[in-house]
């Protein structure tokens, strides 16, 4: 009997609640300091670790394989295990395509992917070519920490003293952020839109209280959203294009498997401009337990992203196609 497992962070409640909905055994791998998961009822078993980096131990991986574990990766998972290790040494089956995590973590690879998919993205600049408002971003910066905006090469030079590390200079897009959550099913070959969120960012969402301060973009929560229905054609079109382009990124040409997210800014044209991708479940799907307006219109029953993952695994086990879902 397969056990669905994840790490105690990020979207663990969503993932494990969905697994229970579909009748799976569930396991939570958790740091000792996070006792709060015991207050919920989604984990049949909690395995406490001194640190999540203990997942590097071969003996622990062997125990998980012994228990027929399928591990659902999320954002915290990627930050605890380095990509080389994950790709080459980690032996526990992972739901989704772990070989694409590199492309979401590296801004250059990510840009190439967007380019291949012919998505509208913010233009990038060198310090000398800045001719409009730009946002200066660090590579791999967590939660937008340290980002700043400038309007000219001169202003950049004035603020460049603050630059610490490699940056990408991106066209500032005037509009509102929308994060589109998709699910690509290897079983049906279909792309589904599961939900949409926007992030609650401190201090960007509090800037009216202190307009003289540069905003920071530390994510502390998520709001559920729906998009104007006439824009859904564009949303599916972008999803289809990114899935199609993803098949050129890994050696097996499997491309995106399961949940992923396009992070966008929607302008008043209205146009959807994509600035980032996550190739796995995002925490923005958490407000949609047990369902979203979009999953309800397809399933007419509770269907969160956690449950959608578990449903895919369940059907794949019945059809003996589980190898199609894991890497
Ligand atoms: P990120 O860390 O890349 O997710 O970006 C953090 C926040 O910065 C986003 O939620 C947006 O509010 C803002 N942002 C990022 N890129 C742009 C852009 N090109 N134009 C305008 N705002 C942006």
Provide keyphrases for this structure:
327 residues; alpha+beta; Rossmann fold; five-stranded antiparallel sheet; four-stranded parallel sheet; 28% helix; binds adenosine monophosphate
Overall average pLDDT? 94
Given helix and strand content, the structural type is: alpha+beta
- Which residue ranges are poorly predicted, with pLDDT under 50 across at least 5 consecutive positions? none
Oligomer: single chain
CATH second-level architecture of one domain: 3-Layer(aba) Sandwich
Q: Got a strand count?
A: 13
Report the portion of residues in β strands. 25-35%
H/E element string? Answer: EHEEHEHHHHEEEHEEEEHEEHH
N- to C-terminal separation? Answer: 19 Å
Largest sheet: 5 strands, antiparallel
As a percent range, the share of helical residues equals: 25-40%
Tell me the overall shape.
globular
Instruction: Report strand order across the widest sheet.
Output: 11-10-9-12-13
Topology readout:
Layout: E1 3-7, H1 12-21, E2 25-31, E3 45-49, H2 58-66, E4 69-71, H3 75-80, H4 83-88, H5 101-105, H6 107-117, E5 124-125, E6 134-138, E7 148-150, H7 153-159, E8 167-171, E9 176-184, E10 191-203, E11 217-225, H8 232-246, E12 258-266, E13 272-278, H9 293-299, H10 305-318
Parallel strand pairs: 1-2, 1-4, 2-3
Antiparallel strand pairs: 5-8, 6-7, 6-8, 9-10, 9-12, 10-11, 12-13
Helix pairs in contact: 1-10, 6-8
Bound molecules: adenosine monophosphate (AMP).
Give a structural overview:
By secondary structure, this protein is of the alpha+beta class. Among the domains are: 3-96, Rossmann fold (3-Layer(aba) Sandwich), CATH 3.40.50; 126-136 and 143-171, no CATH class. Helices cover 28% and strands 25% of the residues. It has helices at 12-21, 58-66, 75-80, 83-88, 101-105, 107-117, 153-159, 232-246, 293-299, 305-318, and strands at 3-7, 25-31, 45-49, 69-71, 124-125, 134-138, 148-150, 167-171, 176-184, 191-203, 217-225, 258-266, 272-278. The strands form 3 sheets. It has a 5-stranded antiparallel sheet. It has a 4-stranded parallel sheet with strand order 3-2-1-4. Strands 5-8-6-7 form a 4-stranded antiparallel sheet, covered by helices on one side. A hairpin with a 5-residue loop joins strand 12 (258-266) and strand 13 (272-278). The structure holds adenosine monophosphate. The site of adenosine monophosphate has 16 residues, from strand 6, strand 8, strand 12 and strand 13.
């Amino acid at each position: 009997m397969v056990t669905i497992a994840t790490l105690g962070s990020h979207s663990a409640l969503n993932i494990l609640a969905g697994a229970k909905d579909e009748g799976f055994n569930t396991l939570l791998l958790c740091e000792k300091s996070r006792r709060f998961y015991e207050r919920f009822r989604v984990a049949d078993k909690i395995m406490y670790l001194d640190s999540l980096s203990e997942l590097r131990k071969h003996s622990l991986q062997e125990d998980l394989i012994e228990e027929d574990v399928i591990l659902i990766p999320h954002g915290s998972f990627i930050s605890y295990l380095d990509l080389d290790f994950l790709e080459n040494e980690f032996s526990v089956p992972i739901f989704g395509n772990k070989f694409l995590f590199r492309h979401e973590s590296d801004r250059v690879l990510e840009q190439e992917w967007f380019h291949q998919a012919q998505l509208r993205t913010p233009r990038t600049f060198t310090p000398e070519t800045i001719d409009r408002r730009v946002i200066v971003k660090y590579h791999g910066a967590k939660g937008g920490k340290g980002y700043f905006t400038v309007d000219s090469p001169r202003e950049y030079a004035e603020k460049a003293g603050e630059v610490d590390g490699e940056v990408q200079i991106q066209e500032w897009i005037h509009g509102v952020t929308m994060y589109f959550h998709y699910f690509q099913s290897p079983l049906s070959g279909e792309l589904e839109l599961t939900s949409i969120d926007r992030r609650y960012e401190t201090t960007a969402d509090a800037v009216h209280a202190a307009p003289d301060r540069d905003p920071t973009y530390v994510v502390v929560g998520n709001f559920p959203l729906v998009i104007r229905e006439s824009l859904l054609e564009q949303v599916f079109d972008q999803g289809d294009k990114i899935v199609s382009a993803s098949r050129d990124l890994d050696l097996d040409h499997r491309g995106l498997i399961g949940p992923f997210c396009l992070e966008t800014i929607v302008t008043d044209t209205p146009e959807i401009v994509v600035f980032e991708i996550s190739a796995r479940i995002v925490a923005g799907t958490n407000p949609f337990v047990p369902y979203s307006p979009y999953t309800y219109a397809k399933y007419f029953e509770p269907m969160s992203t956690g449950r959608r993952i578990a449903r895919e695994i369940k059907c794949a086990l019945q059809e003996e196609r589980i190898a199609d879902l894991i890497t």
